[in-house]
Structures are given as C-alpha cells and as structure tokens.
Design a protein that fits this description.
This protein is of the alpha/beta class. The chain has a single domain, classed as 2-enoyl-CoA Hydratase, Chain A, domain 1 (Alpha-Beta Complex). It is built from ten helices and ten strands. The strands form two sheets. Strands 1-2-3-5-7-10 form a six-stranded mixed sheet, with helices on both faces. Strand 1 and strand 2 form a beta hairpin.
Length: about 200
C-alpha cells in the first residue's frame, strides 16, 4: 500500500490505497517511517498518492482502535522534518486529518486545483499530533490555524495558496513534471550545499 520509486537520488513515495482514499493504517505509517528514516542517500524526497485523494487520514477502523493517538504520526513528521535534502509533498488531491502532519513537515507543498484541506480533530474528540499546530501556525498564522483545527473549516486549494498552506497549484497532469523541475537543481548539488542552505533558511 506504499510504493517507493528510486530515480537515483530522487525518491518518490506514493500512498497506494486509492480504493480507501489512501487512508493510513498502522502498517502503512510504520513503512513510511522506515522509508524516510532510511533515505539518507536521497537528495529529494517526494510524497504523493495514487487516485484523486492524497489521504483521508487515519483508517477509520484503526483510528477507533487507537491509531488516532499513535506515536507513529509524530515519528513520521519528525523524520520528514529532519530529512537533510529537499522534501516535497506533491498533493494529488484532498489532504485530511492526521495525514496533514506529513505534508506540514515537508519543505514545500504543491497541490492540484481540486484539493481540499481539513483536520477535524476537535469534532472527533482528539487532539492534533503534537507538532502539527505549531508547524501549521508557522505557515498560515495562529488565527487561520484555529480556523482549521478549532473551526473545522474545509479549505479549498486557492484559499490554501492564499493562506500559505500550499506553495503552488499545479494541474494534475503536470504535478510530477513540475515536482521534478523543482528538484533538478537539488539533485545536481553537493549534499553539503543542500543541507547548508536548509540550515540557513
């Protein structure tokens, strides 16, 4: 349910459970963690999904059984935040719930025009993952973060771009091509230059 394509130093990780809106199970989260933690030889790490939804968040059955509060979510976002290369969330569709954390931890987010963004933890009776509110607030500000996390608002792609939640809107057929275009200079650079620029930013 997780696909990994290695194109030299470009690693493309795809959520591949489109029949369930790429909802995430504990096994999928564990595999994602292991991939990111082993990605030291990659210079660019891309997260994307199959189908028309990036991820609906936690698999509902597993969420009820405890996945909603699993430390795996935080382990994954922490690993992504610590990645020394460039991480890109190429959002092929809607991003919801706990899956927001992995996108927030990436260096940049590209989204298709049909994408929507929501994180209905308050309605479901859970706290968000520990680092997610701070990362979201750093991107879009405290009030807009409360709009999403407390107001339960569903944000469309154009609004997400205006807020700063995503960095660019790209047509579906051009999403991976544009991602590779952004990656090109990083793939050609020395690792110490890549990590050095990230530290300076």
């Amino acid at each position: 349910m997780i696909s990994l394509a290695k194109e030299g130093a470009l690693w493309v990780v795809s959520l591949n459970r489109p029949e369930k809106a790429n909802s995430l199970t504990a096994a999928m989260l564990e595999e994602l963690c292991e991939i990111v933690e082993s990605a030291g030889e990659a210079r660019v790490l891309v997260l994307t999904g199959e189908g028309k939804v990036f991820s609906a968040g936690a698999d509902l059955d597993e969420a009820r059984a405890g996945l909603a509060t699993s430390p795996l979510w935080e382990r994954l976002s922490g690993s992504l935040a610590g990645f020394q290369g460039l991480s890109i969330a190429a959002l092929n569709g809607t991003l919801a719930g706990g899956a927001m954390g992995m996108a927030l931890a990436c260096d940049m987010r590209l989204a298709v025009p049909s994408a929507k963004f929501f994180y209905p933890v308050m309605k479901l009776g859970f706290l968000p993952q520990p680092s997610d509110p701070a990362r979201m607030s750093a991107l879009i500000g405290p009030a807009r973060t409360k709009l999403v996390l407390m107001g339960g608002q569903k944000i469309v792609a154009e609004e997400a771009l205006a807020f700063g939640l995503v960095d660019r809107i790209v047509e579906p057929g051009a999403l991976m091509e544009h991602t590779r275009e952004i990656a090109a200079d990083v793939l050609a650079a020395k690792p110490e230059i890549i990590s050095g620029i990230k530290r300076m930013i």
